[in-house]
Amino acid sequence: xxxxxxxxxxxxxxxxxxxxxxxxxxxxxxxxxxxxxxxxxxxxxxxxxxxxxxxxxxxxxxxxxxxxxxxxxxxxxxxxxxxxxxxxxxxxxxxxxxxxxxxxxxxxxxxxxxxxxxxxxxxxxxxxxxxxxxxxxxxxxxxxxxxxxxxxxxxxxxxxxxxxxxxxxxxxxxxxxxxxxxxxxxxxxxxxxxxxxxxxxxxxxxxxxxxxxxxxxxxxxxxxxxxxxxxxxxxxxxxxxxxxxxxxxxxxxxxxxxxxxxxxxxxxxxxxxxxxxxxxxxxxxxxxxxxxxxxxxxxxxxxxxxxxxxxxxxxxxxxxxxxxxxxxxxxxxxxxxxxxxxxxxxxxxxxxxxxxxxxxxxxxxxxxxxxxxxxxxxxxxxxxxxxxxxxxxxxxxxxxxxxxxxxxxxxxxxxxxxxxxxxxxxxxxxxxxxxxxxxxxxxxxxxxxxxxxxxxxxxxxxxxxxxxxxxxxxxxxxxxxxxxxxxxxxxxxxxxxxxxxxxxxxxxxxxxxxxxxxxxxxxxxxxxxxxxxxxxxxxxxxxxxxxxxxxxxxxxxxxxxxxxxxxxxxxxxxxxxxxxxxxxxxxxxxxxxxxxxxxxxxxxxxxxxxx
Length: 611
Hints:
By secondary structure, this protein is α+β, with helices and mostly antiparallel strands. It has four domains: 15-74 and 298-366, no CATH class; 90-208, Beta-Lactamase (2-Layer Sandwich); 217-296, Beta-Lactamase (2-Layer Sandwich), CATH 3.30.450.20; 390-610, 2-Layer Sandwich (Heat Shock Protein 90). The chain is 51% helix and 20% strand. It has helices spanning 2-89, 98-111, 147-154, 206-216, 240-244, 252-257, 292-296, 299-343, 356-366, 368-396, 403-415, 419-437, 446-463, 488-500, 533-539, 554-566, 595-602, and strands at residues 116-123, 128-132, 159-161, 165-166, 179-191, 194-205, 224-228, 234-236, 261-267, 270-279, 284-291, 443-445, 468-474, 482-484, 507-516, 519-526, 571-577, 581-589.
């Protein structure tokens, strides 16, 4: 009996490893098959995504180059228009210096005749004052009702670019018809010493724009590029003749509504990608159309490649699975026993033996407590870094949007020989950006923030020609406390744009600073139009609102930055009444501005953590 029992136990011991090996091998095979399937799908999707991204990147590069060429061409036309206006028209009297006007226009025309068709000056009645090249105007062209004339007289501060059209103002001795794009602007002409409004028309040769667009429309995979204005009117399209005849269509109206970027589009039942670029000064949109069929071309070879890789991996894994199953089956049971004891609450020495993987697994389990502690510390550190990154990301949006307008104002002051005002603007701008940079710091003193706000308002008062009054009423004791930098500028900008700008009476903006109940309260108050309770509620809850004017940063940004740094109990408070004004208050804790406090706040130690 003992001999039989011994034989049975020996046979069971022989069977058990084999069963375990088979189980491991089957499991590994299934896992390997699943991994290969997932890997194949991932590889295919990855290659497909990379090919799609590369197609989009190449499209963007082509469009950037084409956009730069178009912008250079249009900037050249603007400069020609400026030269005619400032160097010829404004320096001459049309009553007794018509020859001088004609000579000046002729010089500019001859220097740029490759890109120009016509230069003409009209008074506000639509009567022709001068033209180059000298030609007979067609009988009753009804100039005052033409779109370019109406737009120039309606929006006098802008230059206006028309869609392509046939030049229809002057007779051509060769009976040829030219396609042009009209650049029109409102001007001031002098007749017998009396200034009067007028319109300067510069007809640009459409072939220059067409040439740039034809150079990039060379793809044979269905991809193409077209140009339209902000209303969706086609300026150039590779199938423009078919579109004009009603044989083809283009979804240009929808594309014109998009901002610069990449968009999904479905048109005529086909999915496609739209890449939209803005052309400066014109409102034109350069649109690249990539049909999804362009992405799938060339993917057949990639499928074959992935299939071969998966087949080779299957052959290799079948061998590896056998070896791994044999090596794992014996030591894994001892490891399992020690792990079960460990799970039962004991702390035995974890078995470390067998293959490298099993030994590594045993070592990993034995060191789990140390690793958990390390991971917890790492998670805390990552959360701190993440919050700091969020704060920096919000901070990076505060880039003074008015810089361009300010520099433009300085340019006009210098050209108008208002040098003292220009020097004042430059000095204030330098002070403003010195505090904006703050050596890369996020936390500054209230005093520096107030200096930044005063510089900003000094610039705005010059730009708006003292259309409003500004007063600062701040308790001196709060100047030595900490604050997030650049929190007052957006509030002041909103007060100007949405409060006092456009008021018939002189608007008033008041900046106050008080210490109340252990907090520092900085308020910006105006006597403007105000707003309803519903609008006030949306100001700090709706971060998707479209900003009509200003920097576009909004009050939500300021509120989030304050809360990220100081906690949820601080931020903005808004009070407003229609037709009476608006008050926006910045509420922050009264933390003394020291180097230690500044570093602790910027390193992620919120104020309330120490309370």
